[in-house]
Amino acid sequence: MKELLARLSRHPAATVRLFLASLLVNALGLASSLYVIQVLNRYVGHGVGATLFTLTVGVVIAVLAEHVFRTLRLELAAEIVGGDDEKLATGLFGLMLTARPTALDARPRGEAEILMRGVERAEAAFGAPNLAALADVPFSVFFLLVLALLSPPLALIASIFTAATVASIWFGQRRTVAPIKAAQAAGQAVATLVEAAGSGGDAIRQFRGASLLMRRWVQVSARARELRGQLAAQANGATSLNQALQGLMGAGIIAVGAILVVDGKLDVGALIGANLIAARALAPVVRLAQLSPSLQQAEGDLRAARAFAVDIPVEPGRGAVLAAYHGRLELRRLAYAPPGQPMPLFSALDVVVEPGGVLAITGRNGSGKSSLLRLITGLADPDEGQVLADGVDIRQLDPAWWRAQVSYLPQEPIFLDGSIAENMAAVRPGLGEAEMRACLDKVGLGRFVDEHPDGLHRRLTLGGRSLALGQRRRLALARALAVNGPLVVLDEPSEGLDRDAVEAVYSLLIELARLGRTIVVVSHDPNILRGARQVLEIDPSGCRLTASEVAA
Ligand SMILES: Nc1ncnc2c1ncn2[C@@H]1O[C@H](COP(=O)(O)OP(=O)(O)OP(=O)(O)O)[C@@H](O)[C@H]1O
């Protein structure tokens, strides 16, 4: 209900118009009840045809006018609801694209998709038809007042049943708070498992993960089904209670009304009209009761989506842009522990790489080499210390500008679902096909591209995993070259490549060094380590930096 009121308060002018339209709809809606009373009392009593004709023309006009105002009211409701949820959904998607990657890593898999679906559900629950219907709720009082003018005792009965229905909504909402939260958590567990099953591929089959995942599935889906069942049972119980209240109210009004008729305090026409008016007073409240579970669920969905939006840190959209980056890189007192790990991978790390210098990084598996490269590219933030580019902390730089200075080859290259050309143009907008081909030739992929009928427009699917690993790594190297940044950051560039490709990587490194690029390369390859002017060995007990006299 809070969400509904918040939405209305955001559009005060449209809300006033919506309630004015509702006032007219409800006032005109009274016409059919009054028509019944008048026909029974005046026409049936005296049999004057002209009276019946006049009353019928009047009610037809009123019913048509009511229809017009209902349509108008729907448009006003659409004005109020339009855009809010769409903005939230777009904002969530934007957040996925701009959030700090390490912050997303720490969240459950599939969470964003669940939240998006929740926003879609909320869009339907708080949609214009429901809002228009709910705008009738305050007019229950209007019908009860009209009923009081006809017969105070009957109005009292209708008021009691209307109040009882409102109370049932209130209690119902309190009872479903906990199951709705639990159902959302169970839905998240199901989504995480579905994601794991979808991305598990060969591993699930070959390493017999199916039975483990199936066991988990049985558990989480049973819990989700149980909670859904509990919520459905509560909703059915509430519907049934409301139907019973409606039936009891009708019976009560007819019984008490009949006594009043026999006592001569009410005529039959008024009794039938009163019954219709009482039903009309109760109807919007019953509609609210029917919508209440989905509105409550939608409120929970929106709360979760907004909490996600608030919790997730995003990369700054702006920052300083240097007139030119000369390639000097400094790691100053750097310390970093990956998300969820208490011990830092390294601390107090000091390294300076002068423009055109070559730093090789080595160390045991899991020592933090790739993590260090992510700190340099700005994909992760250090816990302590700074990464400085030409003396400026990279956190002060515009992330997009900084990335345009860094030719980065990640260890696990991933591509966008799009063509090779689209992937290469994404890193350097305006890159021509000739330059793309030159980069591909340098990594020995020219023939690979030419042999395919779509050439540069060959589509990459599954994030590039449809390519052989060696091809994927070479293509990722070509993409890094396309950036043409003063700083080259390569994670195991010769890993998983055939002999020709390894030779191509060596030549490329030599060429980049001759061009004066600053190179930071993670490698275990002795040839690459020999060619570096500085070698940094990462070790939790203390990193060692050795300088060599060998020029690349
Ligand atoms: N996003 C992350 N969330 C949680 N832990 C992470 C994350 N990234 C890395 N780690 C952890 O940090 C540690 C170092 O990982 P990293 O990939 O940097 O090591 P590495 O030295 O490059 O290893 P390798 O030689 O195997 O490539 C590992 O224990 C890894 O599990």
Short description:
The chain is an alpha/beta fold.
Overview of this structure, please?
Helices cover 65% and strands 10% of the residues. It is α/β, with parallel strands linked by helices. The chain folds into two domains: 310 residues, Up-down Bundle (ABC transporter transmembrane region fold); 219 residues, 3-Layer(aba) Sandwich (Rossmann fold), CATH 3.40.50. α18 links the parallel β9 and β10. The mean pLDDT is 89. Bound molecules: adenosine-5'-triphosphate. InterPro entries: AAA+_ATPase, ABC1_TM_dom, ABC1_TM_sf, ABC_transporter-like_ATP-bd, ABC_transporter-like_CS, P-loop_NTPase, Type_1_exporter. This is ABC transporter. GO terms for molecular function: ABC-type oligopeptide transporter activity; ATP binding; ATP hydrolysis activity. Pfam families: ABC_membrane, ABC_tran.
Q: Which band does the percent of strand residues land in?
A: 5-15%
CATH topology of the largest domain: ABC transporter transmembrane region fold
Strand order of the largest sheet: 6-9-10-3-11-12
Biggest beta-sheet profile: 6 strands, mixed
Helix share, percent: 55-70%
- How many runs of DSSP E, i.e. beta strands? 12
Give the CA-CA distance, first to last residue.
69 Å
CATH class of the largest domain: Mainly Alpha
- Approximate shape: elongated
What's the number of structural domains?
Answer: 2
Radius of gyration: 35 Å
Transmembrane segments: 16-37, 43-65, 154-172, 244-262
Domain ABC transporter: 329-550
Pfam families: ABC_membrane, ABC_tran
Protein name: ABC transporter
